[in-house]
């Protein structure tokens, strides 16, 4: 007898639509020290993707450290070079890209990332971020007499822009792999919601920003 169960299921199953975001590179954005590089490297391993870091690529291409580049050429030239590097790194879909903290703030790089990547904001609280940036003295924007005040200013200026990422994942104290697992869950929920738009939103806290 003919099996009609497939047809029956087809009639009731939620409608699945192709989700273009599934084929995009994943880009991590957020403030200095929140974990874009160290979480991104582990996320790439977990998803079997290649990993790139825009700061590292700029350093490789220019033969200078990020701090040296800022000193020799200024921030405006850095942002322009960063945009070119990000554009190059977004050509391969099977990647995770850790961006520099200011990349998503620079309008041309912001547009590029929103158009071509699945953009994930790692959102950290102030004290966690301050503790993490204090481990290394490599960030030129914090080479000021009062780095805490500078970081508060950066947070106030930048958070409204980071919040335009496709997905927001809160980051707290704890092991890197906990953040990796949260990011993976958030990506799955985002893609599932995009494929079947009638589904309710996933857990609060893993916000999808459109
Ligand atoms: N989830 C985490 N748990 C514990 N430590 C973390 C976590 N994420 C990052 N760190 C630590 O915080 C420090 C900064 O992390 P990382 O360099 O990945 O930040 P970043 O966002 O790439 O910063 P930048 O924008 O300056 O490149 C590192 O010492 C890293 O090991
Ligand atoms: O937040 C920023 O503007 C920056 C963050 C770093 O990743 C570097 O890209 C550079 O230090 C600038
Ligand atoms: Mg980094």
Automatic annotation (TrEMBL):
Keyword vocabulary terms for this entry: Amino-acid biosynthesis, Aromatic amino acid biosynthesis, ATP-binding, Cytoplasm, Kinase, Magnesium, Metal-binding, Nucleotide-binding, Transferase
Reactions mediated catalytically: shikimate + ATP = 3-phosphoshikimate + ADP + H(+)
Transmembrane feature ranges: none
The family this protein is said to belong to: Belongs to the shikimate kinase family.
Cofactor note: Binds 1 Mg(2+) ion per subunit.
Subcellular location: Cytoplasm
Annotated positions binding Mg(2+): 37
Top-rank taxon: Bacteria
Gene3D superfamilies noted in UniProt: P-loop containing nucleotide triphosphate hydrolases
EC numbers, comma separated: 2.7.1.71
UniProt gene name: aroK
Enzyme class name: transferase
Gene Ontology terms, MF aspect: kinase activity
Major place of residence: cytoplasm
Subunit structure, as described in the record: Monomer.
Function: Catalyzes the specific phosphorylation of the 3-hydroxyl group of shikimic acid using ATP as a cosubstrate.
Pathway: Metabolic intermediate biosynthesis; chorismate biosynthesis; chorismate from D-erythrose 4-phosphate and phosphoenolpyruvate: step 5/7
HAMAP family: Shikimate_kinase
Protein residues bound to substrate: 55, 79, 101, 158
NCBIfam families named among the record's database cross-references: PRK13946.1
Cofactor entry: Mg(2+)
Organism of origin: Algimonas porphyrae
Pfam families in the record: SKI
Residues where ATP binds: 33-38, 139
Protein name stated in the entry: Shikimate kinase
């Amino acid at each position: 007898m003919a099996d009609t169960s497939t047809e029956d299921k087809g009639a009731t199953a939620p409608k699945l639509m192709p989700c273009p975001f599934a084929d995009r590179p994943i880009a991590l954005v957020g403030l200095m020290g929140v974990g874009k590089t160290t979480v991104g490297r582990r996320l790439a391993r977990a998803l079997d993707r290649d990993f790139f870091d825009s700061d590292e690529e700029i350093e490789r291409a220019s033969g200078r450290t990020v701090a040296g580049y800022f000193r020799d050429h200024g921030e405006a030239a850095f942002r322009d070079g960063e945009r070119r590097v990000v554009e190059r790194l977004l050509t391969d879909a099977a990647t995770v890209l850790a961006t520099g903290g200011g990349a998503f703030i620079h309008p041309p790089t912001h547009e590029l990332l929103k158009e071509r990547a699945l953009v994930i904001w790692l959102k950290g609280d102030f004290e966690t971020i301050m503790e993490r940036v204090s481990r290394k003295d490599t960030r030129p924007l914090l080479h000021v007499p009062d780095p805490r005040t500078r970081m508060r200013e950066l947070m106030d200026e930048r958070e409204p822009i980071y919040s335009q990422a496709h997905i927001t994942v809160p980051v707290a104290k704890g092991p890197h792999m906990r953040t990796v697992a949260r990011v993976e869950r958030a990506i799955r929920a985002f893609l599932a919601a995009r494929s079947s738009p009638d589904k309710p939103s996933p857990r609060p806290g893993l916000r999808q920003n459109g």
